[in-house]
Amino acid sequence: MQKIKKVCIYCASSENIDPKYFEATEKLARVLVKNNITVVYGGGSRGLMGRLADTIIAEKGRIVGIMPHFMKEVEFHHKDVNEFIFTADMHERKKQFMVGVDALITLPGGCGTMEELLEAMTLKRLGIFTKPIVILNAFGYYDHLIKMLEFSIEENFMKPIHSDIWKTFEDPEKVLEAIHQSTPWSKDALKYS
Known about the structure:
Elements: E1 6-10, H1 19-34, E2 38-41, H2 47-58, E3 63-68, H3 69-73, E4 83-87, H4 90-97, E5 103-106, H5 111-125, E6 133-136, H6 143-154, E7 166-169, H7 175-180
């Protein structure tokens, strides 16, 4: 079993969400710190992004923020994050999220979080990105998205093998188990995309 050293987390910047999502984020952050895993994330100081960073910093873990310059200029960046990478734009930011990570983890979020997740799934489908993609379906948040993905397979817009692109889990403390249970993926995936 490969040791997980670095993960990227996609998550929300919204502050107006149910406290249960913040609690799930804290639990996941603590598991990652306990296992000495570096976290790469969007660099924000608000919403789940802020709670993720605050928890990792409080627990003495390592977190890296990646953010376009224009977002720093309006003070969205978390000033206490260990390391920051500032990019020219959102496209470069998404590329940097995937550099050197052992897995991608998606927490509840809005259109930005879902867009990042779906792009990662597309890149995996094409064999460009081959690491585990796990979705924290806390409190059934992603039920409708998962049903839509399954429906796209049923309707032959994707193949049955594409259901192995992602793995869902509901308990934030089971994140490492979800990563390790993910189906290995090949760069040859383009052949059956």
